[in-house]
Amino acid sequence: MDYGGCEYPVPCGKDKYISKNELLLHLKTYNIYYEGQNLQLRHREEEGELIVEGLLNISWGLRRPIRLQMQDDNQRIRPPPSSSSWHSGCNLGAHGSVLKPSTLPGIQVTDAEAVPNTEAPRSGAGTKAQAEETPQLMRTRSDVGVRHRGSARTPSEQRRIRRHRFSINGHFYNHKTSVFTPAYGSITNVRINSTMTTPQVLKLLLNKFKIENSAEEFALYIVHTSGEKQKLRGSDYPLIARILQGPCEQVSKVFLMEKDQVEEVTYDVAQYIKFEMPILRSFIQKLEEEEDREVKKLMRKYSILRLMIEQRLEEISEGPTAM
Prior knowledge:
Blueprint: E1 9-13, E2 16-19, H1 20-33, E3 42-46, E4 49-60, E5 66-67, H2 73-76, E6 85-87, E7 90-91, H3 124-133, E8 136-137, E9 148-149, H4 155-164, E10 179-180, E11 187-193, H5 198-208, E12 218-224, E13 229-231, H6 238-245, E14 252-258, H7 267-273, H8 277-322
Parallel strand pairs: 4-14
Antiparallel strand pairs: 1-2, 3-4, 4-11, 5-10, 6-7, 8-9, 12-13, 12-14
């Protein structure tokens, strides 16, 4: 990669700029650290603008549950042309003509755990026909919109469903567990570029995992091992911020957190956070002693000034009477 070129400022936030050469030096260090890995970043120039692109690691730091979007099975899985019945109450003939609705059998919905483990009949033909006639009830947002399937899904259809469902650390959508909290500190990544602002990265991440929550509920933070927490503003560029922080995630990480649950912690405060209470009390005691010394010093200073002023006033008052 060519890390040279002419010098010009590159925006890294609102009213914040970094020179192109300095950013390229940081980028070179970043790529050396991730040599041979897919986290290396690429850069190019378009119309005089430097653009860096690649994967950004983001750690889950949520304290409250999130909601996954409902799997839209009817849009993603379409029936084969030879299917004679794909919607409850609507049967298609061989040439697409609509036939009379067939009477649906009674359906009893039970949990998987409640189904008794009974031995299936030995008759192979009867078992297969019975399995094909067993309808399935798909869970949707409302029981009014329930659609019944006339036959069980084939293995190919099940594979297609799994491919279209997104997961967070192996968690797929399920009507029982669609609301959950990702494991704290677990890492995911998104492919972005250096022109994408914080809100754009947030929306991309939520869309990738089909998260129903609004992007307005979350924020990106750079969290240091020292305890320092720096919130990325709406005008910041997360990929450039990551490059400038350095590649080592043992020093700092980018976290997705709730906007109203986390407060920024400056470096001056963070350096005291990890001290034990006895050490912090000793700091407070030393500060109080220093404060007392400063107060006494000021009191002596102004006491002397007061005496000088009083002596001068006496000299002024005695002057005219002496004449």
